[in-house]
Amino acid sequence: MLFALLCTDRADAGSLRAETRAAHLDYLSSFGDAMKFAGPFLGENGKPNGSLVMIEAEDAAAAQAIADGDPYAKAGLFSSVTIRPWVWALNKPDAA
Question: With the C-alpha atoms ordered 69, 67, 40, 76, is the resulting torsion angle positive or negative?
């Protein structure tokens, strides 16, 4: 099942995002085909202020474990993380 990880950065996160970005990207890449897409949310100033990660996981507990293992989360970047099951309805890439 697909899960959306909706992450909001702490307002006082400072340089945490930049400092942990490489480890974050390596971590997400380690999930291979289970990683469907990911990227930052942008504030009105055009700077990242959160993240959206779409991941395939066995269940909500597995999605939570993935969220908890993210270097961004471990560094304390996020003020909140919401995990929601999601169904791909349009423009689904080929399964092949």
Answer: negative
Domain residue extents for the chain? 2-86
Q: Which residues contact 1 (CB under 8 A, 6 or more apart)?
A: 56, 57, 58, 59, 85
Per-10-residue mean pLDDT of the chain, 96 residues long, equals 98 93 98 97 95 98 98 97 94 70
As a CATH number, domain 2-86 is 3.30.70.1060
Give me the DSSP letters along 7-30. Answer: EEE-TT-TTHHHHHHHHHHHHHHT
Q: What per-residue confidence (pLDDT) applies to 89? A: 86
Q: Are strands 2-9 and 78-86 parallel, antiparallel or unpaired?
A: antiparallel
DSSP 56: E
pLDDT of residue 95: 56
